[in-house]
Specification:
It contains 13 helices and 14 strands. By secondary structure, it is of the alpha+beta class. Helix 6 runs antiparallel to helix 9 and helix 12 packs across helix 13.
Length: 333
């Protein structure tokens, strides 16, 4: 059976049939010709690795065009659209993920940990409730079952919920390459549109986040066109009360959808909240000032002006809720 196309230069060119037909030499030629004409040359080399050392060696061996494949929830769609045309795929799925664990006041997550594993982890829920809250917004069940912590960080998407949490919780990204392991602060990791501080032959191996303290509260909120869709904008807030008295001792924000990359809320502006309990009006003023330092863009999802109005509301909501939760935890001591 053949399929006829109404556009293109070869309307009568047959579409390839079932994969079994590829055993026939003629069918293989037809498939190659069809893919080249309609989609461009999709060929790439593939290598499954079972350790990060093997991954780095493979990336060096295959050169600049090689890409690491983790969950594939961002990489594969870009390949389908021919936005990315890697010369080789280095499959990291042979690497076993280490279960989440707390070390030195930080939650350590293996790069190959799936979103769904994070959601189901009681340790994560207790130690970093902000992470659990944010991951619940990621995609749908299929995406969460396949998507990985390392893959999401390496992709560097401007609307990544995980990135917002990393910025709000003082995240540190572990990257392994030919020279060994580097520890990269989350605020320095995201450098541009789908660009990170990862070097060409490095892979993300883990993420470390500060665990929740007794006088600390957090909140995550975002707005999307529909459940599971990419966020128009989002905010992760983390507020800590001073140990001596019930005033703010620390505050951090992670913002997504407001720049070409995930960004942290301006620390100078946020410092105006320290040493006191701000009124709702004062929180709104801070939200307005933080928003003024952002650089949202207009795209198919939203206009830049709408994003500015939206993120101000989201910052106000996230800060207010995080402060309330911090006060509740402090009063329970």
């Amino acid at each position: 059976m053949t399929a006829m196309f109404e556009s293109g230069v070869d309307k009568a060119m047959p579409m390839p049939t079932a994969p079994g037909a590829l055993e026939d030499a003629h069918a293989r030629v037809v498939l190659d010709d069809w893919e080249r004409r309609w989609y461009g040359e999709p060929r790439f080399k593939y290598e499954l690795v079972r350790s990060y050392e093997e991954a780095v060696f493979a990336l060096r061996e295959h050169g600049e065009g090689a890409k690491a494949l983790a969950g594939g929830q961002s990489l594969v769609p870009l390949m389908n659209l021919r936005v990315l045309r890697p010369s080789a795929l280095i499959d990291l799925n042979g690497i076993v993920a280490i279960a989440p664990q707390v070390e030195g006041g930080r939650l350590s997550l293996s790069a190959m940990t799936r979103y769904s594993q994070v959601l189901l982890s009681e340790l994560v829920r207790c130690q970093t409730p902000l992470l659990t809250a944010a991951i619940a917004y990621v995609g749908n069940v299929r995406v969460r079952n396949r998507g990985t912590i390392g893959g999401a960080l390496a992709h560097g998407q401007a609307t990544s919920e995980l990135a917002a949490v990393a910025l709000a919780l003082g995240g540190e990204i572990l990257a392994y390459g030919p020279t060994g392991t580097r520890l990269i602060d989350a605020e320095e990791f995201f450098v541009g549109h789908l660009k990170t501080d990862l070097r060409p032959e490095e892979v993300v191996t883990g993420l470390r986040l500060e665990v929740a303290q007794s006088r600390q509260g957090s909140s995550f909120t975002e707005l999307a066109r529909r459940s599971g869709a990419e966020a128009i904008a989002g905010v992760a807030a983390n507020v800590t009360l001073s140990p001596e008295r019930d005033v703010i001792g620390g505050v951090r924000l992670g913002l997504i959808g407001v720049d070409e990359r995930p960004v942290a809320g301006d620390r100078t502006i946020l410092s105006s909240l320290l040493g006191r309990i701000p009124t709702p009006a004062e929180i709104d003023d801070v939200a307005a000032e933080v928003t003024a330092r952002t650089a949202p863009v207009t795209d198919s999802q939203s206009t830049a002006s709408y994003r500015r109005r939206l993120v101000r509301v989201l910052i106000r909501r996230a800060l207010t809720e995080a402060l309330q939760r911090a006060e509740e935890r402090a009063s329970a001591e």
